[in-house]
Amino acid sequence: MRAPRPCGVCGAAGAAKYRCPRCAAAYCSVPCCRTHKERCTPEPKRERSAAGQAFPGGPNRAGQHADSPWSVEDILTEDDEQDRVPLQKLKLLGESEELRGLLLNPHLRQLLLTIDQAEDKSSLMKKYMQEPLFVEFADCCLGIVEPPEKENILPE
Question: pTM (2 decimals)?
């Protein structure tokens, strides 16, 4: 894991433990986050290429895209690492016809947008896990990245 960088707001050496989700700037505290948020100017959205990738060239071995200023290691802590889904399995999500079918539902898409834009994503996720459509979506995603092990099958 990388050592913390200097805070981009107050300049405290080695104190930046957090990153702005919009522009990836490093900061160290809630006050610095608020200060940064007031003047944050995120990069303009990148156009999707013909292949449908948001970042041309895809990620390199460090999980960093060729034109991106940050890598996956910049935002993951050691605790997060155990929950990390390999890129190969994530690509399977894009190949799933079942998942594509679910995402055609405008209600599900609105739920996902609401979560993405929410400040408290965790409590909203708990609320949406009571919604059958969202549970179906979550189960579909988990079934793709973590296929259930076959039980009660005798070896031949």
Answer: 0.47
